[in-house]
Design a protein that fits this description.
2 domains; 0% strand; 220 residues; 7 helices; single chain; mainly alpha
């Protein structure tokens, strides 16, 4: 009987030890999985925070840069307006205020949100203002309101002082040849739109009608 008990005790010990090891191993594996998951989440949150901070700083710098650009331009216009007011030049004062208002409208529009106004943008805005006043001059002359036509022309004269010298026909031809060589375009009518767009980008001070006429004359 004692021998049987001894064997039974030995068997229980033999079975108990591997079972204990199995339980411990499972517990350790579960702990390792939990620890690994915790480390992954910590790493993920850390990287996400870094990326978010970087994006915020980048956006803030871009916004500040754009804002500073506009503020510098606004300060320059304000100085010119003050000078015109001191000289009692009402036409120049009104024209400068119109430019300032047009620049503000461009900068605050949804389509230009976050963009920085370039010199080409400034030229296009002022050219548009000149065109609007030229149309008004024609309408006033047709209506025999010469005094109003003269007032619009006076503003045109002021606005044009802020525009670069208009590109000549020779300038447009050179821009045409440069675009042709740089892009490998054939001088064919099907490429007219490409040439016109490239020339206008290279010469923002060029007259649109002249660009179209010159390009058409250069195409086969």
């Amino acid at each position: 009987m004692s021998i049987f008990r001894a064997k039974l005790s030995t068997f229980c010990q033999f079975v108990h030890i591997p079972y204990t090891l199995y339980i411990v191993t499972r517990a350790l594996r579960a702990h390792v999985r939990i620890l690994t998951l915790a480390l992954f989440l910590h790493f993920y949150l850390h990287i996400s925070e870094k990326c978010s901070n970087f994006a915020s700083k980048f956006a803030c710098k871009a916004k500040t840069k754009t804002k500073n650009k506009y503020e510098d331009m606004k300060n320059e216009l304000n100085a010119l307006i003050m000078e015109a007011m001191k000289n009692h030049d009402s036409v120049r004062t009104e024209s400068l205020r119109a430019i300032k208002s047009a620049f503000l409208n461009w900068s605050t529009s949804k389509e230009n949100s976050g963009k920085e106004m370039t010199e080409a943008d400034e030229i296009q805005i002022i050219k548009k203002m000149v065109k609007q006043r030229q149309e008004s001059v024609e309408q006033y002359i047709a209506a025999k309101r010469q005094e109003l036509a003269d007032a619009e022309q006076a503003q045109i004269d002021v606005l044009e002082t802020f525009l670069p010298k208009a590109a000549s026909e020779e300038d447009i031809v050179r821009a045409f040849n440069a675009a042709k060589e740089a892009n490998g375009w054939e001088a064919e009518k099907k490429n007219m739109g490409l040439f016109v767009k490239a020339i206008k980008a290279a010469l923002p001070n060029a007259d649109g009608k002249m660009v179209a006429q010159v390009v058409q004359s250069q195409l086969a």
